Amino acid sequence: MSSFVRRAAGTALATFVLAWPLTAAAQVQRTFVASSGADTAPCTFAEPCRSFAAAIAQTADGGEIVVLDSAGYGAVTITQSASILAAPGVYAGVTVFSGNGVTVAGVGTRVRLSGLTINGQGGDIGIYFQQGARLAVDHCVISALNLYGIYVQAANSTWVVTDTTIASNASYGLIAEAGSGTLDRVRAENNQNVGVLINTSSNVLVRALVRDSVMSGNAGHGLSVFSGSGRTAIVTVESAAASVNAGSGFAGVTSGGTTLLTLRASLATTNSGSGAFASGIGATVSVTGSTLVRNTGFGLEQDTSSVLRSLVNNAVEDNVAGATSGTITTSGPV
Predict the structure, then answer these.
(1) Average pLDDT of the residues in 282-301
(2) CA 195 – CA 217 distance, rounded (Å)
(3) Positive or negative, the Cα torsion across 265, 317, 222, 202?
(4) How confident is the model at residue 56 (pLDDT cuts 50, 70, 90)?
(5) 1, pLDDT greater than 60
(6) Which residues pair with 88 in a beta bridge?
(7) Mean pLDDT of the 138-144 span
(8) Under DSSP, is residue 15 helix (H, G, I), strand (E, B) or coil?
(9) Quick count: other Cβ atoms within 10 Å of Cβ 202?
(10) Domains (range + CATH), the chain
(11) CA-CA distance, 68 to 86, in Å (whole number)?
């Protein structure tokens, strides 16, 4: 081997050895973004980055991005476990000009999004949970997307949305087609289709708990649960309200599958459809301790093939079409 080749090989090896620790060091547990930051910076507190996309590239698996002050920080795709955190009073904006605002797409990832304001300006989806183990969304505002505020498609996942407003989207506020989820203190308002849709798609089973939430002013049902052929959707609603929707307040529908929708201590009022509605063989809607009043349709409505159970302590009054339609199974006041 010539001396030139030996020197070249040695130089290359030295370069690799020096570069490897620098690359590893770039992946840190906590990174920062700020309005005065630069995407060429190391994303430290002293030298923050300007965008979420730049910060996530320097954030280690399981790390977090901290928003230091109010600004727009751009769309981001997350493929590792990570958190994006904005403190109360800090405006952490994501303007979605096209595509998605936040995409979560990593096997086994666990992601938290806190304090973000995601605003559509031609984009399709605010938060797209495409793949991962767990997604937590809290204290966010998601609005004006061309399709959905939140779209859950990650199989075998857990998703939790709390203290969040999903409003004025051109289709569904939230659509979940997979996993097991919880909506707690969520407002789905003025969306141009169903406010919250729990819908089996390619997944055999979807479960959800909706608690202390409001579905209001949507152009479809307030909350709708649908199961396709051979699939099961199970949803429990507690202390929630559905009002002034163009469809029914709460709907359980199936087409060859099994839909189980349970309402407890909830309110359906002034909807253009019925308060609670069941449709299709395999659809069962159970209502207990709830108030269904002043709806344009019936308080409780079912087609001939579904099951609707009015259990104890329901108030079903002043509905334009009447209290009930169909053969409602009752075991207490209707």
Answers:
(1) 97
(2) 8
(3) positive
(4) very high
(5) no
(6) none
(7) 98
(8) helix
(9) 10
(10) 171-334 (2.160.20.10)
(11) 7
